[in-house]
């Protein structure tokens, strides 16, 4: 069967929805720059979403925001319900304790997907991200942590994908042995840190296990001028690891009580080849 050519207009709408979902309000210019659209096209898409009721233009700051109607788009989608039942309450407690924004991410093939974040409740968040943001495997603390602690066969497959998916790392970073040494160091220390140079913002992440199964990673974003890696390791890392442990243990209890007849429904990885634009996190 011949491959069906995608509808470009629909892809643009989906891209705009993703930008709206990842930020607390956007301008036409924000959208145009984020997904490489002409401003006139970005404006038409945004106004179309407003006409359909999925977005609204705030007259106070001239920014577009999603409306509650978008929740209807996820009706019937029940993938990884444990995020809301298990991870969200524990992340809320962790966020209130650490103050810095914290999040949980799971793997989706060649990216990490942010499932829940406390950005909206953290006064220290430089940018307020939402669930649904995708992070690169090699250039994010979350991705590197997941790679480092994945079983060897899965790690090899994910590296094959990451190194062939647009060149996230250039020069020596693309050499497989260099990456393997980096991941070995992360396994030894128990966490990964990445720095967004232009923002002065760092992210650290630790793995989340349910028994021997790697569920995902828990991360914390912070200003590197306020929190050095040494300060993070001494003051925040123990709490981050403890929260990851609690999430894993609570997940096992949740699974045992909620899955019918012992049916194994561990989170499944979904492979998403469509998104080319990624956020460093």
TrEMBL record:
Q: From which residue to which does any coiled coil extend?
A: none
Is Transcription regulation there in the keyword field?
yes
Q: Name one Pfam family in it.
A: IclR_C
HTH iclR-type domain residues are 7-68
* A GO biological-process term: negative regulation of DNA-templated transcription
Q: Which UniProt keywords apply?
A: DNA-binding, Transcription, Transcription regulation
Q: Which GO terms describe its molecular function?
A: DNA binding; DNA-binding transcription factor activity
InterPro entries associated with the record = GAF-like_dom_sf, HTH_MetabolicPath_Reg, Tscrpt_reg_IclR_C, Tscrpt_reg_IclR_N, WH-like_DNA-bd_sf, WH_DNA-bd_sf
Q: Which PROSITE patterns match?
A: HTH_ICLR, ICLR_ED
> Where would I find the IclR-ED domain in this sequence?
69-253
Q: Which PANTHER family match?
A: DNA-BINDING TRANSCRIPTIONAL ACTIVATOR MHPR (PTHR30136:SF23), HELIX-TURN-HELIX TRANSCRIPTIONAL REGULATOR, ICLR FAMILY (PTHR30136)
Entry protein name: Transcriptional regulator
Specify the species: Niveispirillum lacus
Biological classification of the source: Bacteria, Pseudomonadati, Pseudomonadota, Alphaproteobacteria, Rhodospirillales
């Amino acid at each position: 069967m011949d491959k069906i050519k995608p509808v470009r207009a629909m892809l643009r709408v989906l891209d705009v929805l993703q930008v709206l979902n990842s930020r607390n309000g956007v301008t036409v210019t924000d959208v145009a720059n984020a997904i490489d659209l002409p401003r006139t096209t970005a404006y038409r898409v945004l106004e179309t979403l407003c006409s359909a009721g999925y977005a609204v233009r705030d007259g106070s700051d001239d920014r577009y925001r999603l409306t509650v109607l978008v929740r209807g788009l996820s009706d019937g989608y029940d993938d990884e319900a444990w995020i809301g039942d298990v991870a969200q309450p524990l992340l809320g407690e962790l966020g209130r304790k650490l103050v810095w924004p914290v999040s949980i991410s799971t793997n989706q093939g060649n990216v990490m997907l942010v499932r829940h974040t406390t950005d909206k409740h953290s006064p220290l968040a430089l940018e307020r991200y939402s669930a649904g943001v995708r992070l690169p495997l090699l250039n994010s603390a979350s991705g590197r942590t997941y790679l480092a602690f994945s079983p060897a066969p899965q790690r090899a497959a994910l590296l094959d994908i990451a190194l062939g998916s647009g060149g996230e790392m250039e020069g020596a970073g693309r050499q497989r042995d260099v990456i393997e040494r980096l991941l070995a160091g992360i396994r030894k220390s128990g966490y990964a840190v990445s720095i967004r140079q232009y923002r002065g913002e760092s992210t650290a992440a630790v793995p989340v296990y349910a028994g021997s199964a790697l569920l995902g990673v828990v991360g914390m974003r912070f200003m590197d001028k306020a929190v050095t890696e040494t300060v993070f390791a001494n003051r925040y890392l123990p709490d981050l690891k403890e929260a990851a442990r609690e999430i894993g243990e609570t997940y096992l209890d949740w699974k045992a009580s909620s899955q019918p007849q012992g049916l194994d429904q561990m989170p499944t990885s979904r492979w998403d080849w469509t998104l080319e634009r990624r956020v460093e996190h």
